[in-house]
Specification:
2 domains; 6-stranded mixed sheet; alpha+beta; 60s Ribosomal Protein L30, Chain: A; 4-stranded mixed sheet; Phosphoribosyl-aminoimidazole Synthetase, Chain A, domain 2
Length: 342
């Protein structure tokens, strides 16, 4: 007899796996019809639905040698839910597709489901459906849905000269965690956890929308890269103040530990430079960065890190849309799929 604590997903079978996963997916407050039919039904109180989808690929976005199945579930949910929050919307539901080898332990699949459900619940959403398939490695696709509560979406294209740039959530912690895991340094578990299980501030998105955010994005590819998307879409220049982005003592110590490891890190002359790079270009913290009119009284969790100016005033304009302390930064501002070496 195959049990949930033993055997593989092939032993359990597709329908048995779906039933076991479904049992771990409580409906969220917006679910009207969940798992069990051809489609789910999710309430849209404001009359509009915000939707985002993201992929998590084994070997690219996670390693089973680093991450527990619960970690992977949390991360998979967080990546899509953060995109909903970045539009100023309230997360309502997730749709999850899982492809995996038949040899995958049942326990791993169920722990994955538990991580997905836990993070969806933290965001106030439910898991309402999905699909399963066989594959040579684990692939997870998560579609998140959200509701705007009657507000217009906060897009990337609304930043205006004179606005301030502010961030809610940590910067550089996920990149630090990835670097520490890569070289086998285990003395900073809180930073490793930030990479394995990001915790976006979902309610900060609607909060920013209510007080008048003009543009917003989640920091998934790196602060400079993602601010570049805002600057490009808005036709503006954004200057970041490095004094507002000091890495802090923990990141500095982590950078020193990475550099002193046997593997080391190329391209960093000092712990300070490495930690600064994590903050500016690291990505995958899934915090939120937004622009606001200068007269707005920002909620306590939002801290100002820069200013929006005319595109023609940028250093090296029009090629440079984002600068740090008025100067263009060399190298990529973050992650970009299909760039050689990434």
């Amino acid at each position: 007899m195959i049990t949930e604590s033993g055997g593989s997903v092939a032993d359990l079978g597709e329908w048995g796996l779906i039933a076991a996963i479904a049992a771990r997916m409580p409906p969220g407050p917006y679910s009207r019809l969940g798992i069990g039919d051809d489609s789910a039904v999710v309430a849209a109180p404001s009359g509009s639905v915000v939707a985002a989808v993201d992929l998590l690929l084994e070997g690219r976005h996670f390693l089973r040698s680093w991450s527990s199945a619960h970690d992977v579930g949390v991360k998979a949910a967080a990546r899509s839910l953060a995109d909903i929050a970045a539009m100023g919307a309230v997360p309502t539901a997730l749709l999850v597709a899982l492809a995996a080898p038949g040899t995958l332990p049942v326990r791993w699949a169920l722990d994955l489901a538990a991580g997905l459900a836990a993070e969806a619940g933290r965001a106030g959403a439910g898991v309402v459906g999905g699909d399963t398939a066989s594959a040579d490695s684990v692939l997870i696709s998560v579609t998140a849905l959200g509701d705007l509560a009657g507000r217009p979406p906060v897009r990337r294209a609304g930043a205006r000269p004179g606005d301030v740039v502010a961030v809610a959530g940590p910067l550089g912690q996920s990149a630090a965690g990835h670097a520490l895991l890569s070289v086998g340094v285990e003395s900073f578990p809180e930073l490793a956890a930030a990479h394995l299980r990001p915790a976006p501030p979902y309610d900060a998105g609607p909060e920013a929308a209510v007080v008048g955010a003009t543009a917003m994005i989640d920091v998934s590819d790196g602060l400079l890269a993602d601010l570049g998307h805002v600057a490009e879409a808005s036709g503006v220049w954004i200057d970041v103040d490095s004094s507002a982005l000091a890495p802090g003592a923990t990141l500095a110590r982590a950078a020193a530990a990475v550099l002193s490891s046997s593997s080391g890190t190329k391209g960093a002359d000092s712990p300070e430079a490495l930690a600064r790079g994590w903050v500016l270009t690291g990505g995958e913290d899934h915090c939120l960065v937004a622009t606001f009119p200068p007269a707005v009284a920002l909620p306590a969790r939002w801290r100002v890190i820069g200013q929006v100016g005319e595109a023609s005033d940028a250093a090296g304009a029009p090629a440079t849309r984002v600068t740090v302390d008025g100067a263009a930064c060399e190298g990529p501002g973050g992650w970009e799929h299909f760039r050689p070496g990434q």
